Amino acid sequence: MNVWKRMADKTRALLNDVQERASSPTTGQHMRLHDIDEQIDRKESESARCHQAAAKAKDRYEDALLVASKAQEQAEAAIKEQHADDAKLAVESRLYYELKAVEYSEQYTAAKLRADELMLQAQALKSARAELGFKRSASLFWADPSQAKLRTN
Description:
Order of helices and strands: HHHH
Keywords: Coiled coil
Protein name: PspA/IM30 family protein
Number of domains: 1
Shape: elongated
Number of helices: 4
């Protein structure tokens, strides 16, 4: 029973919100600006998380390359000392870390592209907000009754 009541309340609230936006253009513009601000905040925070993930993937990539080069050196040293088993293990380790490096490189690229895409979306939202803010201030100027006397004189 509570579920149906909650759904009815949500529906009424949504309808009241739509009606309020439609009844007052100024209120609608203000609400739209508020919505755009929230979207911008979400995009920027998500972009920051993607940049952090990209930095972490880059660090892991560099570490994997470092470990792979050390494994290569260990394999060469084991071959010089005629330790075939140690050389085999070192080569397997090197191959594993090279594959990991490729994986981390792909993760870095994907995270970096996603972060850049989100920043572009945030910039587009900022420009839309600036345009809407300009329109809002212009409409408030022309809707102000004290300004109406100046226009008629």
